[in-house]
Write a structure and sequence with these properties.
The protein is mainly beta. It is about 10% helix and about 30% strand.
């Protein structure tokens, strides 16, 4: 069963539990409001490109390597510029439209243009 509660922000261990409106770390004893934990999880969803630049919706990016499209013979070529990206959750963080169609890409294969 996956651990549903966030790790402790002080010691980073995952041995945490809920106590009323607070979350408590059983290892170091640190307590913090559960609402703050939700805000921390949202802050952790920052998407960065291959160079560490923060990406935002609407940014233009460039592919840093050739990418084979799964289930197709299509290859997205290195240096291709993609305009107006959209950030989404999941393993492939960037949703975009190119000449060949719509694609979901990993940010580690992109750099901000």
């Amino acid at each position: 069963m996956p651990h549903a509660l966030p790790a402790c922000p002080q010691c980073t261990l995952e041995n945490t539990y809920a106590d009323g409106d607070n979350l408590v770390c059983a290892d170091c004893g640190f307590e913090w409001p559960a609402l703050a934990a939700a805000a921390l999880e949202e802050a952790d969803t920052v998407v960065k490109d291959a160079n560490g630049q923060v990406l935002q919706d609407g940014d233009a990016v460039v592919l840093i390597k050739d990418l084979k499209v799964k289930g197709s013979s299509t290859v997205l070529k290195m240096g291709t510029k993609v305009k107006s990206i959209r950030l989404v959750g999941g393993d492939h963080e960037v949703d975009c439209k190119m000449d060949g169609g719509s694609f979901m890409l990993k940010a580690c294969f992109l750099k901000k243009a």
